[in-house]
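new request in #modeling-help
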Amino acid sequence: AQSVTQLDSQVPVFEEAPVELRCNYSSSVSVYLFWYVQYPNQGLQLLLKYLSGSTLVKGINGFEAEFNKSQTSFHLRKPSVHISDTAEYFCAVENTGFQKLVFGTGTRLLVSP
Amino acid sequence: DTGVSQDPRHKITKRGQNVTFRCDPISEHNRLYWYRQTLGQGPEFLTYFQNEAQLEKSRLLSDRFSAERPKGSFSTLEIQRTEQGDSAMYLCASSEVAGVETQYFGPGTRLLVL
């Protein structure tokens, strides 16, 4: 069975600083990888996804992530964060051929002025 | 597209009562998913439909839970004899059927069982 680990439950950062949110997964088969963002009292919004091809994936709001198969990682990065990026970020994996997403426990990004 | 909608957004109920939630997917999305999210956790898969057929159910979905999608459009999730442990956010998502399609999530229904 696949699983997703987000080691950092909370990441505090100052506005305009760079940030990296870490995600590691385990799976015995090929996977698709996703990052979702959740603002308070809202559903999840897709930031970006990796299906195949280039390992560097660009998403919305200036976020990008890099798929590293050897390290089974899919870390999310942004070179300069804004206050409005304060939210919960979830990494998710979907095994090829299956339909359900398996989520990590989330990382709360706290951006302060 | 108006997005995935869920109703109600919030529900408070007493232990032992039955509750029903509704999800309206994005029009023409054939797949519909239900997830449950408890405080401090990521969403956990409950079940999914392709059109009206329920194709997979998680072991999290006890006998007290039932989901339907009678005409392949909206879906309902019913919890019978609610327990305090059922308190959670119930999220619905939908996607097209064509390879790996993005799941679009609704705002969720937050359930509190007293």
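bot summary: The CA atoms of residues 55 and 94 of chain A lie 16 Å apart.
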